[in-house]
Write a structure and sequence with these properties.
The complex is a heterodimer.
Chain A: E1 4-10, E2 13-19, H1 25-32, E3 51-54, E4 57-60, E5 73-75, H2 88-95, H3 105-118, H4 124-130, H5 141-164
Parallel strand pairs in A: 1-5
Antiparallel strand pairs in A: 1-2, 3-4, 3-5
Chain B: H1 29-34, E1 49-55, E2 61-67, H2 69-72, E3 77-81, E4 90-91, E5 104-105, E6 111-112, E7 118-124, H3 127-136, E8 138-143, H4 150-154, E9 177-181, H5 184-190, E10 193-200, E11 213-218, E12 224-228, H6 233-244, E13 251-254, H7 271-281, E14 285-288, H8 291-296, E15 303-312, E16 318-330, H9 336-346, E17 356-364, H10 379-395, H11 400-407, H12 426-437, H13 443-446
Parallel strand pairs in B: 1-14, 12-13, 16-17
Antiparallel strand pairs in B: 1-7, 2-6, 2-8, 3-7, 4-5, 9-17, 10-15, 11-12, 11-14, 15-16
Helix pairs in contact in B: 6-7
Classes of the chains: A alpha+beta, B alpha+beta.
Organism (chain B): Asanoa hainanensis
Protein name (chain B): Aldehyde oxidase and xanthine dehydrogenase, a/b hammerhead domain
InterPro entries (chain B): Ald_Oxase/Xan_DH_a/b (IPR000674), Ald_Oxase/Xan_DH_a/b_sf (IPR036856), Ald_Oxase/xanthine_DH-like (IPR016208), AldOxase/xan_DH_MoCoBD1 (IPR008274), AldOxase/xan_DH_Mopterin-bd_sf (IPR037165)
């Protein structure tokens, strides 16, 4: 397979870049588009640090050849905040002290965003399942799970307020 | 948040704190949740070159030939680095605080002492070319018998693997970091019971989510700017300068953002070679461990083997404790001599025992070199000591907490290191813990106090 041009909508913006057959979505995001929020922890799909949303679904971007997802929409941690306003998940991670070294945080947040998009009222078990592919070696899982449950409450409260407005 | 019990310290400090007791946000959290925290590998540089290593295939072998001609033919490969390119090839990270000898080569010379030891570095235009180049290096070995067991390594008939002449670190002329206090054999002779158990632990890999690495960028004035995820920026700066035989002022380390360390990023494993490669090529050079390297060759917590022999009276007093402790340093010292000293400093645990004898050995084997990790030296010793306390208590049909309280050190006791204990709180901690979990202690034990001299109360 030769080098080809790949078109992606990344965080709502149309992007085009050259991809070799071995160029992963992770390396394209980091090295060609300058989006370094997704991290390389293992390069074998085991740690989840590179998690982004591909057409809404969480993927480990280190295992996705960029050329195979031409025309897709990609969401990364950089696209979550609206200006200074953080997403509910981001704010809940801050308020719940759910970060330590911070290296797993972007991937963890993207897995949480994907969960809440399809399940607005998850149980703790469902949160555990959703982040089961994301390793936090600082082992701060308990505050992370609490923060995701808190973010879900915030989203529901916001939706409730908007419905009564 | 859980209630903090400060009763014990009520006389020691005022409680009008402005920070303690409040929730203070960490300063880096906004970067963490927005993906904007700049980790070492989040920087890109034009013309960046990549460095990868060809590593030893054997635990212990003589190197008879190194042929890197095929590596140089790989498209994109720029340079091959051998030990001859390292200005001061022998080092030991603790040389900065006067601990030697320098026992480890940056790149292997005529032999390898562990599987995965670096032999040749390959610098290339791309990571893929560097990996392919490293895989094309051909090393011919004469295999030697490997020493893989700490006690075997200490036997006189075992071959010596280290050039300093012993399979153990020498502490001021001695084979181990030693404690000699009282007369342990007399203590055993007077004891009603003798208990001896063996404890052992496996190596533990820190497995930081961000692997060890650095990017070295040559500066216009000739200095080298090192972007590193080291946990020990000044250790890295000074050790790298010594290896390069360059003044410290030639180097600048930018770090402090660490994607998980846990002690695994205090050795100086990547910066010297990346600096040499950057100097040779006059290009920015990145040297980042793969996940496989992080698991296979980065220093783990040492495996330890600990024997504890106790002489105990019928009433539960420990009158003698002898400890033989072996830290498996692996092939090179790194921080392990310090770890074994910390183990000795921690013995015989927070208990007042009149007769103590300990040998803490820092032993060399043909295993992956071990080093720092979260309380290294102390953590496994504690596991052994507290397991021993439980085992002895159960054997004597004494409540394990009462057994600890009976032997707990108190203010004024002379410890095995000939220091007078002060500020002790083990008794109160156990009493509080017992109350919290509903473990009933007899009045005699509830009345004990760290500040009441032994014998005055219980």
């Amino acid at each position: 397979m030769p080098v080809r041009i790949v078109n992606l909508k990344v965080n709502g913006v149309d992007q085009a870049f050259m991809a070799k057959p071995e160029t992963t979505l992770l390396l394209a995001l980091r090295e060609q588009l300058g989006l370094t929020g997704a991290k390389r922890g293992c390069a074998q799909g085991a740690c989840g640090s590179c998690t982004v949303l591909l057409d809404g679904a969480p993927v480990v971007s280190c295992l996705v050849p960029a050329a195979t997802v031409d025309g897709s929409a990609v969401a990364t941690v950089e696209g979550l905040a609206d200006g200074q306003e953080l997403s509910d998940v981001q704010q809940a991670f801050i308020d719940g002290f759910a970060t330590q070294c911070g290296f797993c945080t972007p991937g963890m947040i993207m897995s949480a965003e994907a969960l809440l998009a399809r399940n607005p009222d998850p149980t703790a078990d469902e949160v555990n399942e959703a982040i089961s592919g994301n390793v936090c070696r600082c082992t701060g899982y308990a505050p992370i799970v609490s923060a995701i449950l808190d973010a879900a409450r915030r989203r529901r409260d916001r939706a409730g307020q908007e419905a009564t407005r | 948040m859980a209630r903090i019990d400060s009763e014990y310290f009520r006389d020691e400090r005022s409680s009008d704190f402005t920070v303690i007791g409040t929730a203070v946000q960490r300063s880096d959290v906004l970067g963490h949740v927005t993906g904007r925290t700049e980790f070492m590998e989040d920087r890109t540089f034009p013309n960046l070159a990549h460095l990868k290593i060809h590593r030893s295939a054997h635990h212990h072998a003589l190197i008879t030939d190194v042929d890197y001609s095929e590596a140089l033919k790989v498209p994109g490969v720029l340079r091959v680095i051998t030990y001859k390119d390292v200005p001061e090839n022998w080092y030991g990270v603790l040389r900065l605080i006067g601990i030697g000898p320098d026992d480890e080569p940056v790149l292997a010379e005529d032999r390898v002492l562990y599987k995965g030891e670096p032999i040749v570095a390959v610098v290339a235009d791309s990571e893929a070319a560097a990996l392919e180049g490293a895989s094309k290096v051909k090393v011919t070995y004469t295999e030697l018998p490997a020493v893989l067991d700490v006690e075997e390594a200490m036997l006189p008939e075992t071959p010596v693997i280290k050039r300093a002449g012993t399979n153990y670190f020498v502490y001021e002329g001695h084979h181990a970091r030693r404690i000699r206090f009282g007369d342990v054999e007399a203590g055993f002779a007077e004891a009603d019971h003798i208990f001896e158990y063996r404890y052992s632990s496996a190596p533990i890999e820190h497995a930081p989510t961000e692997t060890t690495g650095c990017i070295v960028v040559p500066q216009p004035g000739g200095r080298l700017l090192i972007h590193s995820n080291t946990q020990a920026a000044f250790f890295t700066l000074d050790n790298t300068a010594l290896t390069l035989k360059r003044p410290f002022t030639d180097l600048q380390v930018k770090g402090g953002t660490v994607g998980g360390g846990f002690g695994g990023k205090v050795d100086v494993m990547v910066e010297p070679l990346a600096c040499i490669a950057a100097t040779m090529t006059n290009r920015p050079v990145k040297f980042v461990y793969t996940r496989e390297e992080e698991m296979q060759v980065s220093s783990p917590r040492a495996a330890e083997r600990i024997y504890i022999k106790d002489g105990v009276m019928n009433d539960g007093r420990i009158v003698a404790r002898k400890i033989m402790l072996y830290v498996d340093a692996g092939a090179y010292a790194r921080h392990s001599p310090y770890g074994a000293t910390k183990a000795a400093a921690h013995l015989p645990g927070p208990y007042t025992i009149p007769n103590v004898y300990a040998d803490c050995h820092c032993v060399y084997t043909n295993r992956t070199p071990s080093s720092a990790m979260r309380g290294f030296g102390v953590t496994i010793a504690d596991f052994a000591i507290e397991s021993q306390m439980d085992q002895v208590a159960r054997a004597l049909h004494i409540d394990p907490l009462e057994f600890r309280l009976r032997n707990a050190y108190r203010d004024g006791d002379v410890k095995a290191h000939r220091k007078v204990a002060s500020g002790t709180a083990l008794i109160e901690v156990i009493q509080s813990t017992a109350a919290l979990v509903g473990h009933e202690l007899p009045e005699e034990y509830r009345a004990m106090s760290s500040s009441t001299p032994r014998g005055a109360g219980a």
